[in-house]
Write a structure and sequence with these properties.
mainly beta; Archaeosine Trna-guanine Transglycosylase, Chain: A, domain 4; about 90 residues; globular; 1 helix; about 35% strand
Amino acid sequence: MTNRFPQLEHRTEAPRIAVYVRRKAIPAVTSGHPWLFDDSIEKVGSAGKTGDIAVLFDNNRNFLAAGLYDPASPVRFKIFSNSKKLPPV
């Protein structure tokens, strides 16, 4: 009997983009707001493309959230987890 479902190849983990948030946006992130606009971001650690996984930090390099990065959108960061126990993506 043949397997009807193909086996996925193991892929190496993609690099994460470090995103540093402005102080004014920290309360929104920590209270559970689901996204960040471009003017809430202080700096981005490296260039990324739409859909890259990014990790959000405050100015002291404390973890705030993980999400998807979109350099072309005014909604620059879409949060999918604000827990240090990140789900596998």
